[in-house]
Amino acid sequence: MKKWNVATVRAAKGREKLGCCTAYDACFARLADESGVPIVLIGDSLGMNVLGHSTTLPVGMSDMLAAVAAVARAVKDALVVGDMPFGSYQCGEDEAMRNAVAMIKAGAEAVKLEGGASVCGLIRRLTAAGIPVLAHVGMTPQSVNEYGGFKKQGQTREAAEKVLADAKAVEEAGAFAVTLECIPAELAAEITAALKIVTIGIGAGPVCDAQWLVMHDLLGLNEKVPSFVKKYADLASVVRGAFSAYVNEVRKGEFPQ
Ligand code: KIV
Predict the structure, then answer these.
(1) Set 109, 114, 181, 190: catalytic member
(2) Closest by CA position to 24, among listed 39, 40, 3
(3) Is residue 41 in contact with ligand 1, taking CB distance under 6 Å?
(4) Is 214 near ligand 1, meaning CB less than 6 Å away?
(5) Which atom of ligand 1 is nearest to the CA of 43?
(6) Does domain 6-218 have CATH number 3.20.20.60?
(7) Which residue's C-alpha comes closest to atom 8 of ligand 1?
(8) Whole-structure pTM value
(9) 27: which residues sit within 8 A by CB, 6+ positions away?
């Protein structure tokens, strides 16, 4: 298997569609990597999937750095991308640079951050410092309070124009790929055709160059999932079955023998 990097991801545009996912620990990151997942994102969705929060907002740098280090130790071939949590890049570019450097020192090979035109100055500084950036436009979950919930974006022509302009701006600023989250499929297709960089959709239809799924959703560990998710396994049932068989066998004196 080849080692994925920013150059091979860029080169995949128009040639190969990429099924990418999140991981938050060494065990699942190793399994994803061994299965050929090209990009493993340590998403700030760790807040919901691992830490039990209802949004990504409480996640901090210390949460992310521990998870990035664990995933990076396990992955051999995938590109490892660390998500910049809320508050790590909103309080000034110098602090953002220091936090992105910490992500790279922990083992990330690129960082992801949310926002369009408003973060282009930071994207320029990061890429000039040798830190590749994966951008994220459309529905940006760190803005949940501004939206009043996790709501689909880009639904009016004016809103769609803004998402398209943001995607073009982050490309121009040097991002090597852009996440398109929860926008209409036609808009995602328009953006994918307009950009030279890879678009990675999540809830953005089938035409993007690549897709994200959150690991806990695709494996069926989360029972309630967004409507666009396909569950490729039902691990919640498997795990519950194993735990209850163990508890019953111990209770009945059948284990250990
Ligand atoms: O944190 C996350 O899970 C994300 C998704 C877009 C994959 O940012």
Answers:
(1) 181
(2) 40
(3) yes
(4) yes
(5) 1
(6) yes
(7) 43
(8) 0.98
(9) 74
Q: Is position 254 annotated as part of the catalytic site?
A: no
Q: To which H or E segment does residue 83 belong?
A: strand 79-83
190 CB neighbour count, 10 Å cutoff: 18
200-252: pLDDT as tens digits? 999 999 999 999 999 999 999 999 999 999 999 999 999 999 999 999 999 99
The C-alpha atoms of residue 117 and residue 127 are separated, in whole angstroms, by: 15
What are the extents of the domains in the chain?
Answer: 6-218
Tell me which DSSP letter residue 154 carries. -
**Closest-CA residue to 184 (of 206, 165, 168):** 206
Q: What are phi and psi of 212, to 5 degrees?
A: -105, 145
What is d(CA 143, CA 115) in angstroms, rounded to the nearest whole number?
Answer: 9
Upstream peptide bond of 256 is cis (omega within 30 degrees of 0) = yes
Q: In whole angstroms, what is the distance from residue 88 CA to residue 137 CA? A: 17
187-206 pLDDT tens trace: 999 999 999 999 999 999 99
